[in-house]
Amino acid sequence: MKAVRIHQYGNSSVLKFEDVPVPSIGPDEVLVRVHSCGVNPVDWKIREGFMAAMARHTLPLVLGWDVAGTVEETGALVKRFRKGDRVFCRPDTSRDGGYAEFVAVRTIEVAPAPRSIPLEKAAGIPLAAQTAWMALFEIAGLKAGQNVLIHGASGGVGTFAVQFAKIAGAKVTGTGSKKNFDMLRVLGADELIDHASEDFSKKVRDMDVVFDTIGGETQAKSWGVIRKGGVLVSTVGADEKAAATHGVSGKSFMLVSNGARLEEIGKLVDMGKVSVIVEKEFPLAEAGAAQDLSQAGHARGKIILRVA
Ligand SMILES: NC(=O)c1ccc[n+]([C@@H]2O[C@H](COP(=O)([O-])OP(=O)(O)OC[C@H]3O[C@@H](n4cnc5c(N)ncnc54)[C@H](OP(=O)(O)O)[C@@H]3O)[C@@H](O)[C@H]2O)c1
């Protein structure tokens, strides 16, 4: 099969579009024929070797852990899926991913793909949407009526976070660039703050929850806008000492993918309550350009690689 792999860490020139063996599957796994694969910052972070200390990857490695496609083959123990089923998943990031015609995935990570959108859009959901869901509901415990501040609201994770928080009945404030405000209002943001020209720390206070997808100075300034006892949850690591100084909690996490959670998200998509914003689609052979766009850090929603 065709796949994009790395044989060494480095910039996007280390991505090799090549012929590789079709993966074999275990008894509780499915082989997914990949239609499209979402591109996420973790792809270029792993490619650069930034995660080599925490994740034990064997090179060569197929990148890409955001997949939509159809089931090609099922393991001996698999009952939930059959050949031909439309599925989506965030495969285990320690294994070969979905920049390939086929990927082997544990069934616990797989869910039926939403029927109301094409697979190239569904591929933008599993990683970013589950991250937003886990952060807001499973870690921060966001409830109706609470105030939430979402940093990086226009990004892959942020666009889902805005929608989920709104559905949950929270009052949603987002930080982003002015050019994305119209889109973010449609998704459900109540208040928007332009990170380039405004200082959010002077505009909001007493937040119950801050969802930080940016880190650095943005996180440092966030502690002071959270009410006592409130929580900041970060996709890029929270400074727990700073949190304690402000009488709030700071939580870091890594997404644990879960097909049941993903199925619930897919149902919200089919109910028309959640949309997938796509910045740009590339063919598989142009994975390097897709990653360069992600690495530039200004994506509006998701970047997709078309494999089929
Ligand atoms: N821990 C985990 O399990 C986990 C899971 C998923 C993602 N992540 C991490 O979370 C981060 C975000 O991921 P993503 O997929 O959402 O990234 P992304 O799609 O690249 O989004 C970045 C967004 O942030 C906006 N932005 C940049 N600087 C900003 C600032 N100072 N204030 C507000 N918005 C700003 C950008 O828009 P403009 O620059 O145009 O304003 C862009 O829309 C990445 O570092 C990723 O690796 C971690």
What is the compact description of this entry?
With about 300 residues, this protein is of the alpha/beta class. About 25% of the residues lie in helices and about 30% in strands.
**Biggest sheet record:** 7 strands, mixed
Instruction: Count the DSSP helices.
Output: 9
The gross shape turns out to be globular
> Helical residue percent?
25-40%
Bound chemical compounds? NADP nicotinamide-adenine-dinucleotide phosphate
* Rg result: 19 Å
Q: State the end-to-end CA separation.
A: 12 Å
- Percentage beta strand: 25-35%
N-to-C SSE string, H for helix and E for strand:
EEEHEEEEEHHEHEHEEHEHEHEHE
Contiguous uncertain segments of 5+ residues: none
Mean pLDDT: 98
Instruction: Give the total of beta strands.
Output: 16
Structural class: alpha/beta
Q: What does this entry look like structurally?
A:
- The strands form three sheets. Strands 3, 5, 6, 7, 8, 15 and 16 form a seven-stranded mixed sheet that branches. Strands 11-10-9-12-13-14 form a six-stranded parallel sheet, with helices on both faces.
- It is globular, with a radius of gyration of 19 Å.
- The protein is of the alpha/beta class and 308 residues long.
- Helices cover 26% and strands 29% of the residues.
- NADP nicotinamide-adenine-dinucleotide phosphate binds next to helix 1, helix 3, helix 4 and strand 10.
Main features:
alpha/beta, globular, 6-stranded parallel β-sheet, 308 residues, binds NADP nicotinamide-adenine-dinucleotide phosphate
Give me the secondary-structure topology.
Layout: E1 2-6, E2 15-19, E3 29-39, H1 41-48, E4 61-62, E5 67-74, E6 86-89, E7 102-106, E8 110-112, H2 119-122, H3 126-139, E9 147-151, H4 156-167, E10 171-176, H5 181-187, E11 191-194, E12 207-212, H6 216-222, E13 226-234, H7 240-245, E14 249-252, H8 259-270, E15 278-283, H9 287-295, E16 302-306
